[in-house]
Amino acid sequence: MRSSGLNNMAKLKVLFATSEAAPLVKTGGLGDVSGALPAALRAIGMDVRVLLPGYGQVIAQLAQHKVLAAFDNLPGFPSARLLSGKMANGVPLLVLDCPSLYQREGGPYQDAKGHDWVDNPQRFGLLSKIAAVLGSSASPLDWHPDLVHCNDWQTGLTPAYLRFAQGAAPSVFTIHNMAFQGNFAPATVQELRLPLSCFGIDGVEFYGNMSFLKAGLFYANHITTVSPNYAKEIQQAALGFGMQGLLATRGGDLTGILNGIDTDEWNPATDKYLVKKFSAARMTGKADNKKFLQNKLGLDVAPDVPLLGVISRFTHQKGLDLLLEIAPHLIGLPAQLAILGSGEAQMQQAARNLSHLYPGKVGVNIGFSEELSHQIEAGADMFIMPSRFEPCGLNQLYSQCYGTPPVVHATGGLLDSVVDCTAETLKGGSASGFVFKGMNTENLFTTIQRATDLYHDQRKWKILRRNCMAKNFSWKASAEAYRAVYFKVLGR
Ligand code: ADP
């Protein structure tokens, strides 16, 4: 391991390697975190730079760039270049330009039909490899990071490459979701030029395959995940996705840090997507946003009917199957549903069917829309998030800021960020939503019913909304917790 030779007063240099960063490219929470955390770390005095693949949309958004380095002879990989750039928030970008791997029609991980790109091992093997090169004495740059911070399986091989490199910086690996593992055929080890010796239980092997995620968990100097509760859950069989044993063994090197939110992007007082801005002190605008949303989604304009918002990937994880199942009963409460999302075809169809069966009551938009997601957070009365598991979850944080109390399942970061509303918590000022235990339709329904009952008690509802909006989910506290992890890893 390189001794950096820096004194403690020098700015800590961190290479933040990620496969997505909002607003340049985002498919979920990882994009939000990568778009905001590096800026928050820089704001508390670190020199953080983001390494990101040069997808077409990223290259198109680079205003001007310099070629910082060329990699023409990396065994096992096509030629690539490193371009300089800058995020809108000022964070320096290192864009990994390799058109044959990254510039194509479709998403970062999948083609337009939703199938994983077959060359994902190559695509994210290269990203992982370059992050490791930049963190080792083989780097062609003048800028040498003290530490490499990797995120999710797409950069999971970086800690492995670093372990076998000369003059390597230590690594921190953050788990944003254990469900995505990047598991591939054993031959991938050789194709990506990892030493064959690392294909074993003490290495990248996972039930006969090689696993990018396992590599990150095994070789990183420290592991973090995005909430304290999820850090505990993944050390147990129910949510460890087969890696609970390794995580429990590494429990002393595993820290849960709750995500923050980007308050430049998510603030109802300044949000550019809202018809009317509002704040805790001036709430009248929220009603205008509800009316706007009802119109936009073809819902009856009914100011007094509670409007339930959903923004989600349509997957088993998010528990929307339960919500769709009880939708007819919710409408009977009465309530309306505003749903934005995409994913599994069956769930998309079920959501569409509901909107046809209940015109004016269920509004559905299948797709990905940043604009509509802000409008739902602002216009809905409550936000529904019945995730079976949830590493952190961001929408329940946004919804609290927008005075839209969330209804959540008691899991992962949802439990860390939402306080169930009871007579005591409402009185004590901590209540900020509704939490149900036991993942079934009955518990979800009775909890939403509890929420809609409270909604009709205007005085109490106002108190609840005020509590939500008084919460502080800014990135500063999280950034300080990451800094403490970096210092621990570096022995400072
Ligand atoms: P996950 O990363 O598991 O999808 P998170 O709650 O951590 O869940 O983050 C999801 C992020 O993606 C949030 O910013 C959310 O608003 C956004 N998002 C999810 N689906 C959509 C969609 N269909 N349109 C716009 N934004 C979406």
Describe the structure.
This protein is of the alpha/beta class and 492 residues long. The chain folds into 2 domains: 13-260 and 476-490, Glycogen Phosphorylase B (Rossmann fold, 3-Layer(aba) Sandwich), CATH 3.40.50.2000; 284-472, Glycogen Phosphorylase B (Rossmann fold, 3-Layer(aba) Sandwich), CATH 3.40.50.2000. The chain is built from 19 helices and 18 strands. The strands form 3 sheets. Strands 3-4-5-2-1-6-7-11-12 form a 9-stranded mixed beta sheet, sandwiched between helices. The longest helix has 16 residues, at 475-490. It is globular and about 65 Å long.
Features:
492 residues, Rossmann fold, 9-stranded mixed sheet, 6-stranded parallel sheet, 18 strands, binds adenosine-5'-diphosphate
Summed up:
This protein has 492 residues and is an alpha/beta fold. It contains 19 helices and 18 strands.
